[in-house]
Structures are given as C-alpha cells and as structure tokens.
Amino acid sequence: MPLSIKCVSGGCGPGQVPLSEQGEPPPVAEEMDPLGAGAGAARVVHSDMGDPGIVKSPSDPKKYRYIQLANGLRALLISELKDGEWGGTAAEADRDYEEEEEEEATAEPRQEDDEGDSGEGTEEEEEKEEEEVDSDFEELNEEKEAGKRASSEKQSAAALCIAVGSFSDPEDLAGLAHFLEHMVFMGSEKYPAENGFDAFLKKHGGSDNASTDCERTIFQFDVQRKYFRQALDRWAQFFICPLMIEDAIEREVEAVDSEYQLARPSDSHRKEMLFGSLAKPGHPMAKFGWGNAQTLKQEPKEKQINTYQRLRDFWKRFYSAHYMTLTVQSKETLDTLEEWVREIFDKVPNNGKPKPDFSHLQEPFETPAFNKMYRVVPVRKVHGLTLSWAVPPQARHYRVKPLHYISWLIGHEGKGSILSVLRKKRFWG
Ligand SMILES: [Zn+2]
Predict the structure, then answer these.
(1) What distance in angstroms lies between residue 283's CA and the mean position of ligand 1's atoms?
(2) pLDDT, tens digit, for every residue of 179-190?
(3) Which residue among 27, 296, 332, 382 is the one 20 to 30 A from 359 at the CA level?
(4) Is 0.85 topped by the overall pTM?
(5) If you measure from the C-alpha of residue 363 to the centroid of ligand 1, how many angstroms do you get, rounded to a whole number?
(6) Catalytic site positions
(7) pLDDT digits over 193-240, tens only?
(8) Looking at residue 48, what is its pLDDT?
(9) How far is the CA of 350 from the centre of ligand 1 (A)?
(10) 77: which residues sit within 8 A by CB, 6+ positions away?
(11) Strand pairing of 74-79 and 207-212?
C-alpha cells in the first residue's frame, strides 16, 4: 500500500519524504497572521504593503501578505511587483478578462505526468539510475526550464492545499480521495466543458497538476499573467461547484488506473507498497490510497456501491474552506491579489465540521512485521540496501527540521564522511 500517492511527476512519494514532513501542515493560522487580522477584521496594513511580520530574505524583492477569508480559507499573497514598478491595474486585467472569449474548447485528457518526470524514488541510487534513463529528456527539460525562468515574470501561479488525503478514504472504496482529485477537473457548473481548465491553460501558456497524499491534496497551476484572474476563477470552481457528472466517472477511472499501471513497474513504488503492508492492521497507513480500476470500478459494482454519490459526499465532507490554504503569486499589487482572492474564493463552502484527525494513530510500524529483513527482487537491475527507522511525527519541528540535519550528515561525501570511510575500507559506496 502506498503511504501516499502522487499523480504528479516528481516530488515526493512516501518512501522519499521523511515522515517528518507527512504530518499536518504547519499551524500557519496563528503564526503567519502577525496582525491578528482574521476573517473580517480590519487590516492595519497600509495600501499594498506586505505584512511586516512575515520574515523574508533581505534579497527577496517580493511582497507577502497573509489573509483569512470569512469562510475560513487562509491565503498567502505574493506580489512580484518591485518598489516603484507599475504592473497595471486590476481594471486592466479585468479588461483582458472580458476580452477573452468564453471558449470552452475540448481538451485532451490531462496527462499528469506530462512534465517528463517519472515520479520515481529520490533515493540516491535510484535517482542516478533515473538520470541515465531519462538523459534523452534532460536537454529538453533544461531548455524548457530555461524558457520558464526567462518568462517567469510573465507567469503567475497558484497552489491550493486541502488538509485531507487518502487516509480519509472509506474502508470500502480505496482510492476515493485520489479519484476525487481527478474528478474535479472534469468541468464545473460555471465552466462545464470537460477538462476545460486544462484546455484554457494550454491555450495561454500554462500548466497544472495535482497530487493526493496521506493527509493532504494539492492543486497547482501557472499561466501567463494576463490570464491569471480568469484562470483563478476557473480553477476555484473545483472547490465551489464541480460537476462530477456520472458519465465522466468511468472515463476518469481509466485515467487513475493507467497512472497505477504506469507506476507498477517502479521499484520505489513497490517498496512503498511493501511498507504499507507492514503497518498495523486497520491503520490508515495500510490503505491502498492510489486506487485503480479494481477498487474504483469492479469492486464497487460487485458491492453495489454508488461511487458517484460517494464522490459527492466526500467532496461535501472534506473540500471545505476551513481545511484549505491557498498561495497566489503574480506581478500584481498585493491589493489586487487580495481583491481577486476574496472575490473568487469567498464562494468556497465551509461545512463547519472538524478536520480529520489521525493524531491518535501514531507509530503505525510498531509491529513485528516491520522489524524484519526483506529481500526484494527488483524490476530494474539495481542492488541496494535500505535501512528504515520508524520515527515519531516531526511536523511540530518543521522550523528546525532535525531529520534534514541527520540526512545531510549521512549524505555528506567529504573528508571524514561515512562515505569516505566506506570507500577507504572498500565497502560499497
Ligand atoms: Zn492521479
């Protein structure tokens, strides 16, 4: 069972992210609201000033502001406008918005791995192997990256995290959270075209992606700056009024299944599954969060489970504004960004229900099965030794990141390092 699922290329899979980072997101509400300007509170910030309480690098010219909407959604606004620079006005951007024809072009199905990254493990040996395998794509990727950097100021971006993931999957419908993450892309009441958001981004030099992890689901996109407001509005409908029509369910199950089939021959994903199977029985860590045609189509059919209704129930229960954190970054004034975010995201519903809490389920690997040596026949031609420790949740240490220090110490390759000793002794290394 995967400890987490990533539709996204790259980034972190379970075997790769230290458990420290898989806990709840940091408690931003109090810490990043230096002025105590909660929902509806009057702001003391001068016009277009960043929050003075947000600590940033002296060389960082961007401005930051934290806001909380009346529905509980928390947002970090990032303005790329430098002092004295004039980025145009919200009115101008609105004009662009109106000029844009309401085309609902039909999109091709979203390719969640279209960045060319395979989502393989980050363990060093696997990365190295990956590099070799993907070397043909590297040049292309580098060019793409260079192009992106050059035009970064023309791009705007947003990301939204919901504090729910596959840990909240119902026992009888494995992969529902991941499946819902796919389904919200399939049109909304306001913009009903299936995959219309992807088509819009494609047309305006943008890209998007999403991922479902154990306790969080993340959506992100970037687009040319002048289409940012419109893209934000389209994207926000995932969280306001997604259609999730019954017809689309069958098609999208195939998309989830093909992601699963693609990941099957991956050694790192297999290792995740192995780890999942070692967790205590009944612990959410043992869930099969990915989902595939069997768990999302065949089994529900046999058990007469209404996947359509379950999707809607899950959305209503968990896609709630008070579980959401949003970040937007653009070359607009902070005031403009705030205006847009308030206008658009105020409509995200809040069901007032408490957040899913798994804090009572610590130490999933305190099992005899975990304290064993497993010999695994890999898919790839690779030899590796993995030693795994189950450590307590580290989320509250996020400012210090003690596990990062330990991993840097172990990974150091200089004089006196573990690696140099192993090499001297002609061990592996
Ligand atoms: Zn996916």
Answers:
(1) 23
(2) 999 999 999 999
(3) 296
(4) no
(5) 27
(6) 181
(7) 999 999 999 999 999 999 999 999 999 999 999 999 999 999 999 999
(8) 80
(9) 25
(10) 64, 65, 66, 67, 327, 328, 334, 337, 338, 341
(11) unpaired
